[in-house]
Amino acid sequence: MQLALFLIFGGLAIAGAINLLLQKHPINSALSLVVVMMSLAVLYWSLGAEFLAAAQVIVYSGAIMVLFVFVIMLLNAGEEEHTHGSRAAYIAGFPGAAAIFCVLSFVFLTESKHLGSANLGGQLSQASNNIAEISSVLFTKLLLPFEVTSILILVAILGAVVLARKEQ
Amino acid sequence: MNLAPNVLALLPEYILTLAGVFIMLAEPCLKPGSSRKPLGWIAILGTLLAAGASWFQLGFGTVHAFSGSIQTDAFSIFFHLLIAAVVLVTLLGSLEYFEGNATHAGEYYALVLFGAVGMMLMTCSTELLMVFIGLEISSISTYIMAGFRKGQAVASESSIKYFLLGSFATAFFLYGIALAFGATGSTSLAAIAVGLGTTKTPTLAILALAMMIIGLGFKVSAAPFHVWTPDVYQGAPAPVVGLMSTAPKAAAFAVLLRIAFSGFPSMQHRWAIMIWILAALSMTIGNLGALLQRDVKRMLAYSSIAHAGYLLVAFTAFPVEGISAAAFYTAAYAAMNVGAFAVITQVGGFNETARTLDDYRGLATRRPVLSGVFAFFLLSLIGIPFTGGFFGKFYVFSAAIGSGHIWLAVIGLINSGVACFYYLRLLATIYAKPTAEASEVAPATPVSVPAIVGLTLATVATLVLGIMPGNTLWLAQYAGTSTMIENAREQCAATPNNCQQMPVPMERR
Lengths: 168, 509
Hints:
The complex is a heterodimer of chains A (168) and B (509).
Chain A: H1 2-22, H2 26-46, H3 50-75, H4 84-110, H5 122-125, H6 130-139, H7 143-164
Chain B: H1 5-8, H2 11-26, H3 37-57, E1 63-65, E2 70-72, H4 74-98, H5 105-124, H6 128-146, H7 153-184, H8 189-198, H9 202-219, H10 229-235, H11 238-244, H12 247-263, H13 268-291, H14 296-313, H15 319-348, H16 357-360, H17 363-366, H18 368-382, H19 388-402, H20 406-430, H21 449-467, H22 470-494
Antiparallel strand pairs in B: 1-2
Helix pairs in contact in B: 2-3, 2-5, 3-4, 3-5, 4-5, 4-11, 4-12, 4-15, 4-21, 4-22, 5-6, 5-12, 6-7, 7-8, 7-9, 7-10, 8-12, 8-22, 9-12, 9-13, 10-14, 11-15, 12-15, 13-14, 13-20, 14-15, 14-20, 15-18, 15-19, 15-21, 15-22, 18-20, 19-20, 19-21
């Protein structure tokens, strides 16, 4: 079951990501990104990270994608044009992506023996609940990062005001 | 005075946050179009109070707070004071700069303070997630500040380029944190240091460290992750460039020092190679790139890449010497670079009337004092004796030679020679005879009093670091030893049965 889920949604995520790059129209790319995000959520869930899966669906597939689509609509973005710069990006980007892929797969394959495994529905087999554990860590050990995030959001709001407000 | 550790450890951050929030609340109360200078003065007051609070913390030794995610020690206080000083000089120079030019001067002061909070949090946290949040706060506020001259196309280009590449870099850093957690089971530096001894996946840990070095390498503009620097510095307002080429870099270097020497000390033989390559590349690319530039801000951007390279040399040294040399160099670099950009702020003004070398030709005849100060900062950037730059380079290279990295020091010294050329070219241009058109330029506006105070501060700091480096060096060495001792103590607390004391740092001096 786990393997089947992984193969289906892992494949879907990769297909979505490749489609995102190949599509010329931004709205098509944005919709393929939804596919990637949703498949990732399923993968997280199958690894026993229920909270992350839910957050992925709500934050990424929900909030961020809606924002993307709105921006694309407001800007009335048309098909992308191939310029000299975008060709250079292809030349630099593909070997770079391939190199990162090779390094990561090398490391994970060499360390695969020692990396533990997580199972679907980890909550059922393990005593501790994933969500309960996250919340207890978030409000005890990681309280400060959690609270300081409010300053981060405040800075982001300030930035939006500064950049978006019309000059008088 | 008795303060709870959670209050005491983050006192400067609280003060700055309150000042920032107060500015945000006060801004709408001022009439539109009226002067925003009072808000600037509040920001300056807040910064001074924060610096005082940091100095006050020095009497308490090492304070742990928030379940060990914050460690206020001499190391963090050193960088707190440094960041506060840079912010102070920047604010003093910005008062006149933004007046009447930008419509968001009030928000600018709040952003500077919040950015400073983020940088300070980076330097005092031993929890990588906290470091990440601090890094994001400081980065996002600098992305916005880079685009503050909204009318200009270069400003928008600068802001967007910085934002896209910076986000890319933080993604690397975050992935590094995740992998470090995978390898050691914790995101706290002390626990990582202990976990590395027993981890079954050392390759993963190395990859994690490499990712974090890449992420921070972007932030300190070390080659080959430097491509954004010239464009961003060219488009951003001059006072902001002075800030973002010093304070966030100092914070990122502090984090890198903590990660390298407190989190991954057992892997020094591995990460020293990565840092060696980064340092050699940054010095060479920075200095060779600067030779080709005609735009003064772009030239100083490449020079800051080269200086990041010199600073990275310190990482290859022994822990305590390396940390104190790096801390001292950061202070010297911050003093002279923020000073140089303060001069550029005054020469160019908001609309940047002086950009290229040709615009600077004959500056000395028009503005003799300002040119003299600028010349002093340039000499310090070269590393002439009696300036902060000299002792900075001296300590860094002697620390590297002391640990056997002679070739790296040789590369650094050759690069310092190359660097002489472009700094002296700018200097010669300033003191050259003005051309016919240049003398027709409208008379320069006089430098305002706060800006003079800021410039004086930077000049005095550079001079004091060059003539009497003793006090700063003492604080830097105290900073270096304090982190190492605390590190050893924490490791012992984590594994009392298997307590490996660090090599006693005081012995080496």
